[in-house]
Design goal:
- The structure is a single chain.
- This protein is an alpha+beta fold.
- The chain has 5 helices and 6 strands, in the order αααααββββββ.
- It has helices spanning 2-13, 33-39, 58-103, 106-129, 137-159; strands at 162-164, 177-184, 193-198, 201-203, 206-209, 211-217.
- The strands form 2 sheets. Strands 1-4-5 form a 3-stranded antiparallel beta sheet.
- The relative contact order is 0.07.
Amino acid sequence: MAARSLRRFGTVLGAPWRGSLYFRRSPCGFSTAAQQRSTGDECGPEDPHDEPKHPLSDCALEHKAIKLEEQVRDLTERYRKALADSENVRRRTQKFVEDAKLFGIQSFCRDLVEVADILEKTAESAAEEAEPSNPNPTLKKIYEGLSLIEAKLQSVFAKHGLQKMNPVGGKYDPYDHEIVCHVPAEGMQPGTIALVTQDGYKLHGRTIRHALVGVAVESQE
């Protein structure tokens, strides 16, 4: 009789009778996971990702910032040195190229000035022979032709930066001159160049052949 009454009571409540007393389920059993996370229901397990993380201490952050600053300074210094080195290499390379353009004909000029010496001596010899007392017209024409060739040759030299030195009356310079003799300083200051036995030449300001000179000295009585 009691069991029959309990079945009727369970049917009224909408729960099936399973041979035991009926108990109403807790609301926690019907709550969704989203509701548990949003409302913080105590029935569900705690999310391990929600645990608070321990931030770095101020001392550790300061130490890390100092190390980063040191790295930045070191990299900046290396970058500046690399820029300076590359600029020096660029300048040296540019200077080398410019010198190669200017002085690439240096050896050729040394050989060519010897031809100019021969031409100059030949013209001087022709000038001595072609004096007004000698009426030979052929010799006179040869001298005039040699003089024109010599002038044209010196013009070509100047065009390419090759210039003859004119040291007579100037101070002796060991970088430009080579002393071959000493002459008495008659009306000249001692130490100055009195004569030139062989012309010197410069290519773009660089001496490629020293001038052979005689320097004036005080005469000893």
